[in-house]
Specification:
Elements: H1 10-16, H2 28-49, H3 55-77, H4 81-105, H5 107-122
């Protein structure tokens, strides 16, 4: 199963990319993504725990989580940079919609999701 991991040589690939001077070093990504996924999990838990109907919000969340997973394969494993860029646009749209739906159910979860959206936009290429 590990052979299908998109991470392979992602650090080496990232280090070889043409980046602006303000690009973060590669060691920051595991720290940032661990924090982001923790916040995302807490937000989803809060939504799932509410008595309000949250099926559409949870479907949006699950879909954007799947696209998030797919992006690493597109960019690092398969080297499809253009496709990864288009997929990222769809992903950011779904994250925004998820944050909006979460906000209608639970303000804290919606604000947390929108914060994650802004962090992902900044890590785009």
């Amino acid at each position: 199963m590990w052979g299908y991991s998109p991470q392979g040589d992602s650090k080496g690939i990232y280090d070889k990319l043409k980046k602006p001077a303000f690009a973060p070093p590669s060691w920051t990504f595991p720290v940032a993504w661990t924090s982001l996924y923790t916040i995302m999990g807490i937000a989803k838990y809060r939504i799932a725990s509410k008595e309000k109907d949250s099926k559409s919000a949870e479907l949006l969340y699950d879909t954007q989580l799947g696209l998030n997973f797919l992006w690493s394969f597109l960019f690092f494993k398969w080297g499809l940079r253009g496709t990864a860029f288009i997929e990222m646009a769809a992903l950011l749209t779904l994250i925004t919609l998820t944050a909006f739906e979460f906000y209608k159910i639970d303000r804290t979860s919606g604000l947390a999701s929108e914060t994650i959206n802004h962090k992902k936009e900044r890590t785009l290429y």
